[in-house]
């Protein structure tokens, strides 16, 4: 077992594509809970306290907010709870649908938070370099330039501050003016730096025909297993969706299809799909403990 | 610019302008459920791609690549926490200046790439393609407006146009991601409420861009134009005949 973040970029990418797309389009309560719980669990596994913070300060308030707003602005549904001062009625269905929307959004945001942790910039570059070498080159160069220029910007800012025209000095217009000055100096330095870099690129043979990309990633049999598992679960979930397992109605009343053996199997496959990263990571932890 | 690629570009632009809203609206009305979100994200990705594909096919000297990467990095820094005030970020100003000097296609690439790159630092989300398209189109439109005109040297015209384009194009497209994502059911009132919640931020962002362009636009442009003329790069940008 190896942790999910050490897998091949393609493995990670295929998994996150499935998780995000399914998480966005399936509003069935079971699917929603699976997606939300597994993404939150994996996020907490990856980030610890930061993951918990995201749950309590982002997911819960967002869900409450959409529930309340939808309850107050939409008035469909047959279960009337109360009547609002403006004469419309507050219905259970509209609140539930708002909560569903908030949960979907939270789950997808949490998946993206996990993605940012595991699909690092060099993996993204690896994924783009094959089809779009020039774009990948620009991204690589800019990724190097950005910290460099930030350092230079800090130097410029310190010099300006010594002169009494730092970004924190003066009124709002003054701040914009001082900040703009820093950007202006930075543009000069950046352009000169770019020209120098291009000379260096030319000296090293940029634009000559035989060119290859170096990559640090090896596609192992382990990746093959994970990808096939992901695709197998995808296929089952899509088949389930085609058969109407994911069908749900919130308006005007709540309705889902009867739970059968088949739909139970689809739920299990969806759960397995969403648990793939968590299981690989926990498996690695166990292995580490066993070896120690 | 050759005639063929010009025709292709215009077709691209028309498709872009017509297809995106059409698909989003038809998604709202015909798909009912949440498929419209996937649909619109796919369409947005598909509308960004042609620019990158045409860039990949074009032969560009190493100087253009390096300068493009440099100006993108400056724009990324402009979006990183640089100012003591929120939303006052020079990223759009840098993109607009790059578009005005180096041509609209470069402007689109700078805008889209700087949003993509800063999301590598800040974190990707469902909003990434929307922001890329938003700032890319801001650059593209400003580049087209000032393509052959000497008006870009007039600081007020540049600043006010840049501010308005940023407000309308970037604000609208970037907020569309929250509209699509947070609204359970389509209703004009709910859509308007989400857009109006973002209006203040967008207004500050646009106003800061305008002020920066008024104060520094000319300086920025002269710096970029100097590099352009000195090294003879971005010649296909369709530049107004300079007297410098």
User: Could you say how many structural domains of chain B there are in total?
Assistant: 1
Spatial strand arrangement across the major sheet of chain A:
1-2
Rounded to the nearest angstrom, the distance between the terminal CA atoms of chain A is 15 Å
| Fraction of residues in β-strands of chain B | under 5%
The secondary-structure element order of chain A is HHHEEHHHHHEEH
How many alpha or pi helices of chain A? 9
What's the number of structural domains of chain A? 2
The structural class of chain A is mainly alpha
Low-confidence stretches of chain B: 240-244
Per the principal axes of the C-alpha atoms, what is the gross shape of chain B?
Answer: globular
Helix content of chain A: over 70%
CATH topology of chain B: Arp2/3 complex 21 kDa subunit ARPC3
Bin the strand percentage of chain A. under 5%
Low-confidence stretches of chain A: none
Largest sheet of chain B: none
SSE ordering of chain B: HHHHHHHH
Textual characterization of the structure:
The complex is a heterodimer of chains A (292) and B (244). Chain A is built from nine helices and four strands; from the N terminus they run αααββαααααββα. By secondary structure, chain A is mostly helical. In chain A, a hairpin with a 5-residue loop joins β3 and β4. In chain A, α2 runs parallel beside α4. The longest helix of chain A is centred in the middle third of the chain and has 32 residues. Chain A is globular. Chain B has a single domain, classed as Arp2/3 complex 21 kDa subunit ARPC3. Helices cover 78% and strands 0% of the residues of chain B. Classes of the chains: A mainly alpha (292), B mainly alpha (244). At the A-B interface, α1, α3, α4, α6 and α7 of A face α2, α3, α5 and α8 of B.
Question: What is this structure's SSE topology?
Answer:
The complex is a heterodimer of chains A (292) and B (244).
Chain A: H1 9-25, H2 29-47, H3 49-73, E1 80-83, E2 89-91, H4 92-118, H5 121-129, H6 133-162, H7 172-203, H8 221-242, E3 248-249, E4 255-256, H9 261-291
Antiparallel strand pairs in A: 1-2, 3-4
Chain B: H1 3-31, H2 35-57, H3 62-79, H4 91-102, H5 104-122, H6 128-145, H7 155-182, H8 188-231
Helix pairs in contact in B: 1-2, 2-5, 2-6, 3-4, 3-5, 4-5, 4-6, 4-8, 5-6, 6-7, 7-8
């Amino acid at each position: 077992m190896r942790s999910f973040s050490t897998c091949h970029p393609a493995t990670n990418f295929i998994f996150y594509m499935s998780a995000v797309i399914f998480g966005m389009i399936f509003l069935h309560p079971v699917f929603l809970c699976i997606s939300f719980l597994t993404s939150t669990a994996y996020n907490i596994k990856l980030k610890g306290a930061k993951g918990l913070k995201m749950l309590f300060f982002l997911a819960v308030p967002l869900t409450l907010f959409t529930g309340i707003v939808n309850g107050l602005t939409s008035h469909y549904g047959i279960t009337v709870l109360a009547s609002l001062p403006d004469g419309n009625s507050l219905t259970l269905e509209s609140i539930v649908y708002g909560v569903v929307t908030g949960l979907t959004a939270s789950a997808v945001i949490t998946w993206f938070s996990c993605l940012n942790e595991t699909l690092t910039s060099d993996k993204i570059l690896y994924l783009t370099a094959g089809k779009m070498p020039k774009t990948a080159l620009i991204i690589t160069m800019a990724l190097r330039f950005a910290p460099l220029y930030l350092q230079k910007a800090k130097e410029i800012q310190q010099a300006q501050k010594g002169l009494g025209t730092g970004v924190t000095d003066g009124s709002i217009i003054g701040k914009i003016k001082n900040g703009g000055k820093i950007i202006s100096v930075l543009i000069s330095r950046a352009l000169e730096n770019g020209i120098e870099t291009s000379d260096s690129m030319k000296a090293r043979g940029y634009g000559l025909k035989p060119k290859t990309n170096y990559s640090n990633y090896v596609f192992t049999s382990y990746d093959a297993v994970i990808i096939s598992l992901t695709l197998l679960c995808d296929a089952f979930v899509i088949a389930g969706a085609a058969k109407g397992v994911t069908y749900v109605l919130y308006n005007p009343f709540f309705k889902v299809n009867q739970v059968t053996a088949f739909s139970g199997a689809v739920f299990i496959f969806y759960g397995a799909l969403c648990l793939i990263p968590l299981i690989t990571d926990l498996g690695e932890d166990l292995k580490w403990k066993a070896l120690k | 610019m050759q005639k063929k690629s010009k025709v292709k570009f215009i077709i691209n632009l028309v498709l872009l302008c017509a297809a995106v809203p059409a698909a989003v609206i038809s998604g709202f009305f015909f798909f009912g459920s949440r498929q419209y979100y996937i649909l619109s994200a796919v369409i947005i990705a598909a509308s960004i791609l042609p620019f990158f594909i045409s860039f990949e096919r074009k032969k560009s000297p190493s100087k253009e690549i390096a300068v493009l990467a440099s100006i993108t990095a400056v724009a990324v820094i402009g979006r990183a926490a640089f100012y003591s005030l929120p939303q006052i970020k020079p990223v759009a100003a840098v993109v607009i200046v790059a578009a005005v000097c180096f041509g609209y296609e470069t402007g689109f690439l700078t805008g889209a790439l700087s949003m993509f790159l800063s999301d590598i630092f800040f974190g990707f989300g469902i909003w990434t393609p929307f922001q890329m398209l938003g700032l890319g189109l801001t650059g593209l439109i400003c580049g087209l407006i000032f393509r052959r005109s000497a008006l870009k040297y007039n600081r007020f015209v540049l600043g006010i146009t840049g501010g308005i384009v940023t407000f309308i194009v970037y604000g609208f497209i970037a907020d569309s991601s929250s509209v699509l994502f947070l609204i359970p059911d389509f209703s004009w009132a709910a859509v308007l409420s989400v857009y109006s919640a973002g209006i203040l931020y967008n207004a500050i962002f646009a106003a800061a861009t305008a002020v920066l362009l008024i104060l520094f636009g000319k300086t920025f442009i002269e710096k970029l134009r100097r590099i352009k003329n000195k090294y003879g790069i971005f010649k296909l940008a369709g530049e107004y005949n300079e007297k410098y």
